[in-house]
């Protein structure tokens, strides 16, 4: 503290900046909360409709209507023994859907799901009509004419989040569940949808709130005699929080593998058998195979389930010197794919002489050397050369190659062992939270005031809250008042 020319006590620059930072963060959080509440109000004030099944022909198509007027929309278009407004929740009723000018569209089954016990937390109508592009479009059109609007992509799940039916991690799990290509990826999405990741995040967040509330209380209410955690106690609590965040960050690579797959690039000279190997590994003819050099002009990608691990196989253009502008662009794409690969399969024709530069990457743990065409005589250049020998024609050596791919993936720790794994957005949030915790620990170790520690802990709290979509400064105040009985 300093005194001005009139004798008034003023704060020094650093302390004033800290208090301004805290106040600014509180205002920003309050503004975000108000904006979110306004967006929520605007979102739930109308009624949305969409076809929830994929386009095309099928036995059944599902049309959903959600919002305050969903039942009213159903009353206008559905003709049956009773009107939807009289239906018991979650009981299906047979009837007919009528469109403009009273024209019959289809015989359907309709059910009503009352708020808040529905997927979106609002009144929700589900109409099961005959599957087909035109009939489902006509049913949707009838809903729109009756007062609903077309839903935006993901808006039903967005409403479920805004209405408190799920947190952000659960909302993200919905699309992971839909896109899962292996049993482990499916299990991961299911457990995240059930809230396991959200529970861990909330636990970390609660610990930060408790620690921050204690420190803030000692700063803002010194007359109450509250002693903040300090020394070894503060260091231990911060260390525990940091370890929990770091443990979740360690699952980032597993999350990438579960959601995207291990990126395995097949490359080599033209006519070595790259496309043939892709076809063999997939078990069907995905790529045209020809004796003509330079047949593959673009990167071709397919996903393979190998022992429960999603493998993204990329067949690339053959590497060679070319004067063709198109082929040079293809080769450039191959080089880019190699830079992003988790594992490379370098394939060569063992019937041909060994290229001069072939020794360059022999010891690379991220690369498997594959000699193709073992059904033909081997050129003497390959004598005693350590490599996997296969035949894409007869499938000889393919089981050994698959085992080696799995072994390399395990060695590089690319094989997901646990179904709980964060995605790229979670990683960014948690990385910022970890850095903020580290800054708080350094501030405490350097003997700086509690205000400095509080600023960094508040940054960590904001970052952790972003993972589940909760950023609320009021929770800190609630914790302060409930724990310390201030103002008694």
Structure, briefly:
With 488 residues, this protein is α/β, with parallel strands linked by helices. Helices cover 47% and strands 16% of the residues. Strand 11 and strand 12 form a beta hairpin.
Number of DSSP E strands:
15
Shape: flat
Supply Rg: 31 Å
Strand order of the largest sheet: 5-6-7-8-4-3-9
Share of residues in strands: 15-25%
Q: How helical, in percent, are the residues?
A: 40-55%
Structural class of the helices, strands and pairings?
A: alpha/beta
The biggest beta sheet is recorded as: 7 strands, mixed
Mean pLDDT: 80
Low-confidence stretches: 1-18, 483-488
Structure description:
Strand 3 and strand 4 (60-66) form a beta hairpin. The protein is an alpha/beta fold and 488 residues long. Strands 5-6-7-8-4-3-9 form a 7-stranded mixed β-sheet. It has a 6-stranded mixed β-sheet with strand order 11-12-10-13-14-15, with helices on both faces. The protein has 15 helices and 15 strands. It starts with a strand and ends with a helix. Helix 7 packs antiparallel against helix 8 (231-249), helix 7 (196-220) crosses helix 15 and helix 8 packs antiparallel against helix 13 (424-445).
